Amino acid sequence: MRVTSLIPDAQYGIQQSEQSLSTALQQLSTGKRVNQISDDPSAYANNLKSLAASANVDRYTSNITTMLPRLQTADAALSSVVTSLNQAITLGTEGANGGLTSANRQAIASQVQSVLTGVVSQANTSIQGVYVFAGTANTQTPFTADPTASSGYTYNGNSDVNQVKVGDSTSVSVGVPGSTIFTSGADVLGSLAKLVSALQSGTTTDIANATAGITSALNYVDQQRIPLDNSISTLNSQETYLSQETVTLTSQQTSLVGIDTATAATNLAQAQAQNTAVLAAAAKVMPQTLLDYLK
């Protein structure tokens, strides 16, 4: 009767030791102290919150990784446009000299035409198949030749701009509309085309006026670069912040549910020793037939 009454206790002891052994093995294989909610309900819940925060950080970081090169490429293109417009102003000033011959002005007109072609090339800048000056219609070439247009080119993009989140309360504008920069406002392309025309068949006054128009276009482009540069600065700052946030959250998750290898190995050794002892004790009090049944 006494032996029979010990059987449930022995069975319970075996179950508990095997559960401890299983937990220790899982901790060692996963590197985590908490693998299910029953291991530590509070730590498990807090870790879920931390993992959700990490997912947001990963999403914001991915957005930056995609958007930053596009905005940097757009800014570099506009920097080249500024250089080209300065060159055009120099050529226009030279062409307005009353002492030049018609042949001289035709030669200068050819140079300005080359400048215009180069600016159009910059306006059609792309990165990884995305045109940076097409608004949100960024899979098609923004500017194509059009003899009916005053500038000789037509805009195929749109004027839309997307807001992309790079933080819980931080967004940046992406999808720069080329029409805003190159054909609206001071009309960069149109101003260059007017200078070409003035050099080919206009008076010195026409040339001077056209050159003044390019100066206005230059100032306009410089103004358009300000919000672009601000967005780039925001992305760079946010990228640094998110990188540190990733480190902080990873450390938090390790603290909540992690376990170092040495501790996990020690726990496993202890669980194995306990399991061996429990089985040995059970063998002394439980009938062999019952042990065979449990096996």
Throw out a few tags for this protein.
single chain, 295 residues, mainly alpha, f41 fragment of flagellin, N-terminal domain, 2 domains, two-stranded antiparallel sheet, 8 helices, 72% helix
Please render the helix and strand layout as text:
Layout: H1 2-30, H2 41-95, H3 102-123, E1 126-127, E2 130-131, E3 143-145, E4 153-155, E5 162-167, E6 170-174, H4 178-183, H5 188-201, H6 204-257, H7 261-285, H8 288-294
Antiparallel strand pairs: 1-2, 3-4, 5-6
Helix pairs in contact: 1-7, 2-3, 2-6, 3-5, 5-6
What does it look like?
- With 295 residues, the chain is mainly alpha-helical.
- It folds into two domains: 2-31 and 260-294; 52-250, f41 fragment of flagellin, N-terminal domain (Up-down Bundle).
- It has eight helices and six strands; from the N terminus they run αααββββββααααα.
- The chain has helices at residues 2-30, 41-95, 102-123, 178-183, 188-201, 204-257, 261-285, 288-294; strands at residues 126-127, 130-131, 143-145, 153-155, 162-167, 170-174.
- The strands form three sheets. It has a two-stranded antiparallel ribbon with strand order 1-2. It has a two-stranded antiparallel sheet with strand order 3-4.
- α2 runs antiparallel to α3 (102-123).
- The two termini are 23 Å apart.
- 33% of the residues are buried.
